[in-house]
Structures are given as structure tokens and as C-alpha cells.
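Dear colleagues,

As part of the handover before I leave the project, I'm documenting each prediction I ran so the next person doesn't have to rerun anything. This entry is a single chain, and its sequence is reproduced below.
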Amino acid sequence: MPRFYCPQPLHPGAIVDLPETVAHHLHVVRQQPGDELVLFNGAGGQAHARLAEIGKRRATAEVVAIEAIEAELPYPITLAQGLPEGSKMDWIVEKAVELGVAAIVPLAARRSVVKLAGERADKRLAHWQAVVVSASEQCGRNRLAEVAPLQAFDRWIAQPASEVTRILLSPRADASLAAWARVTPARASCLLVGPEGGWSAEEEEAAIQAGAVPLSMGPRVLRTETAGLAALAMLAAAWGGI
């Protein structure tokens, strides 16, 4: 059954206007009134709905029932990602959502090749948020991962971490993430992943001074688009949620 994000209140009996992009998609694939679909608004749970009207740019659906279905990890994980080049960030956002990440924080690091600011940064943020929606529709998540605005690493790391454990992924760390996760109870955590050139020595020192736990991903040096995803999978394997 097709799934679509619909940012409206959903309750049994409601007739909702579907987003224009969804209406266009349904028209292209020749969906007809009476066809069933699943809607979610990002606040949790999903709605079993039935297509009521459909045109080229407009469609409505009737909510039949609400289903309390969730596919979230039992512990929130944030991915603080040093901004990579090209379309790598799209890939990272998409796959991190599939693996259950709760939030993504793009960071402008010293070795980040791409420089974003102003309108360009705003457009990329909107694009990444759209990637979150698409990935959530595909993977069955009913809550949208938050994508924070791009910010400088130095400014971000100076902010209090509250009750979140920051994990600095570094090939120079002595202890491994896998070994640490096996002996550490599941908890709210934030994975710090550097850009293509990794974190600078100064950035690593600043992270450790701010309370981050330096951990490695093993004897192999992983690409930036691989490291965070592998770390998410390691935590899920050790703490449950897959």
C-alpha cells in the first residue's frame, strides 16, 4: 500500500487535501477513487485512508482509521555530520533516516570543501528536509527526523550537550565504538563524523574538552559517507532496534 507524508491533522472521518506532489504522483500512476493508501503527518502513528477525488494537481482522501504503528529506535541518535562535498549529504541523510536517526546536524568543519551560506544554505536545508520525507515514506517511519540548519563546528561544540553522550568518531582513538557499545547501556547519543579530510586536531581536542568520547570504527579508515551509517548500524546491533 503506498505511503505518503501529509502534514495535516489526521483522524477517522476526516477528508484531507493531499499535497500537490502526492496528487501528481497518484495521477501519474493512475490511482482511482476508492484505492487505499497510508498517510502520516510526522507526529507519530499512521492513517489508513481511501482516495476520494483525484485530478492532475489535486486529490483528497478520507481517513478510515488510525494505526498506532511506530518504527523508531528506543533511544534517540543524532548524527552531527561534517559537511561533505557534492551529493554525499543527500545519501547520508537518506540512509541515516532508514537506519533510524532522530536528528541530523550539518556542520561546517575546517576541512569541509563545500561552503554554504545565506540563500544557498537555506535551499540545501529545504532539500535535505525533502529527502527526509521521501526516505520516511519508503522505510515506514511515521516520525520525521529533524534536520538542523547548517552551523559552524566551533559554535556547535561549545553548546551544552545536556544528557546526550557525544561520540567523536576518529581513526586516532584507542577504543572502538563496537567494544564501547557492548558494555554501555543504550542512551541518547550524538555521533560526530568529520568531512572527507576528517576532523582537524584542534576540532578533536575541542570535542574532547566538551565531553565527547573518542572512539574508532576499527582498523580501516572509512569514508565520511560510510562512517556515520556504519556507526548507526553498530549501535542498533548492540542496543537493539533493528
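Residues 129 and 147 are 6 Å apart (CA to CA). The chain is about 35% helix and 25% strand.

All the best with the project,
I.
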